Amino acid sequence: MPKHVAIILDGNRRWAKKEGLTIPEGHEAGGRRVLEMIMDFFSVGINTVSLFVFSTENWRRPEDEVNYLMDMFKFFSKTEIPFFQRNKIKISVIGNRLNIPTSLLEGIQEIEEATKNYEGKQIIMAVDYSGRFDILQACKSLAEKTKKGLIQVEDINEKLIENELMTKCSEFPNPDLLIRTSGEQRISNFFLWQSAYTELYFPTVQWPDFSKAEYFEALTWYQQRQRRFGRRV
């Protein structure tokens, strides 16, 4: 089984249109689906699940939609702490926090602090995340350390870069399996470095309709893959 599964939660708006609902109702349904699926995510021994919930590019969406999503994330972070504590799930939030509203930042800090000591089950929430920005900030950090004489240019290798990426918060920073719902076949600036050898799975079901059965189908598909990492087998 994979140790780390990443999921791009795609299709909330298209699902809402199909069901004759508003866009906020689509996002609300997608949020409920996350909560309903969380225990299923870990039911077969998976350690880390990363959820791409808001990309840096999503700031370009209509202001009322963005504001609704920020309020929904804030409500989630405030109300679900007892659930994650009860089930001993560590929550980590990655992304560029400069544009995130202060009230949401406070909720993020609260839920991270409340769950920081748990091991074995971790949810990584990617909010205002960009794979390019992640690599860029890692390079800047290494450049600063080089400038200060903490490391030499010759010391820089893949391991040092991985230690500067935002996924350093996980024991398993590189996903084994990436699922993107709704049928779109691209990773949209998510985990560009981390996904170098990730198996990519693109079900056509939209996120609010993604179920335990679809999740297990993805895991079964993964188990049938022959992962060579460039080697001949």
Automatic annotation (TrEMBL):
GO terms assigned for molecular function: transferase activity
Cofactor: Mg(2+)
Listed PROSITE patterns: UPP_SYNTHASE
Cross-referenced Pfam families: Prenyltransf
Key words, A-Z: Transferase
One Gene Ontology CC term in the entry: cytoplasm
Top class in the EC scheme: transferase
Record-listed E.C. numbers: 2.5.1.-
Annotated pathway: Protein modification; protein glycosylation
Family: Belongs to the UPP synthase family.
Chain's role: Catalyzes cis-prenyl chain elongation to produce the polyprenyl backbone of dolichol, a glycosyl carrier-lipid required for the biosynthesis of several classes of glycoprotein.
Name of the molecule in the record: Alkyl transferase
Species, as recorded: Eruca vesicaria subsp. sativa
